[in-house]
Amino acid sequence: DRLNPSELSKISIHRIAESLHEDLIRIRRHLHAYPELSEREFETTGYLRTFCDSLVRDSLGRDSLGQAKVRLGNDKRGLWVDLVGDEPSRPIIIRGDIDALPIQTAIDASYRSRRAGVMHACGHDAHATMALGAAMILRRVGQTTGLPRGFAARLILQPAEETSTGALHMIESGALENAQAAIALHVDPTRPVGELGYRLGAFTAGCDLYRCAIEGRSGHSARPHLTGDALNAATTWIHLLHQRVPRCHDARDALVVNVGTFHAGEAPNVVPQRVELSGTIRGLSNAALRAADACVEKINASIEASYDVQVHFERITHTPALHNDPRVGQVFVDAARQIVGRDRCRLIDQPSMGAEDFSFIAEQVPAAMMRIGVAGDSVGDQALHTPHFDLDESVLPIGASVMALAALQYFEGAPYFEADA
Description:
By secondary structure, this protein is of the alpha/beta class. The chain has 11 helices and 16 strands.
């Protein structure tokens, strides 16, 4: 028999999560020791599938989670599984990512990466573990007291976040079919372990990549007047990019440009024929990115008119801006406050100019992401995307609890967490 909301309030999400802590540590350490780069996450998918298979097998012999099954993404990278109660409705997504970075680890731990030049330097091992932990908590709730009527959650473990192709990969595989909302966490080494950072509305920037080639006539360095000086044109192009693009749009709607690569010439006494550049343009809104596009077009025309060169500019739409949905975000924040306390949930004053491919999911369904601190007394304060990055593993049950409780309370406002547990 299903319990009513007041009886459900006796469930301690925190207590369930703590009972899973050692399991979560083992999962996270295995993922950290055997990382895989974006687009290559076959072994990681297979490893996580074993745990997802167990989610749909009820050890108590009750079918409290419905006839769920694990589904793999196209080409067997990434996976998802539905966890449902009675008369399930459209699911809320609990999302984790699973890919690693091309960085040689420098941490000294038993679980350090065993794969040369590859490491989990952005916490995706923890993201996947916490999302899986949330699903394990929900399974336990379903086995013991039952899930709210209409409850449906979908665990998605996606590949290739770092290349911003993984969310689209899962969408194309069908993982968002019939979903109605989504939540995700991202680790934050600037916050003490277990502290949550939240922000409704703009959360991360959109990011476009570009490639630019400037071509002129090659010639002898003694006679540059007889050449189309592509190198000089390119340096002016960079100067104008940095000078004009940030001033072409309302400064309160941020734009950030960068030149990341520059390739030209092979000899010191030759004016090169071709210069190749690439970089990024980031904005907090589509309007900002459109303004940047228009400004770059004018810069290109100006360079061609001022120098005897041709400018070939290619903009590559990469990742949209992430805007946290107010309703989903508030449910997420309320759950976090119940787990860690109101004083450990802090407003993020300004959005990040970094990009996050959870934004592709947020374009499809109302969604929200929060940041969770991983800095402990002795580990976890090193920056993301660096060889020394690691985290305090006491964060794992906390993150799992927050996501599990948010999923439950999205469907029913019962206070699932016992404040005195």
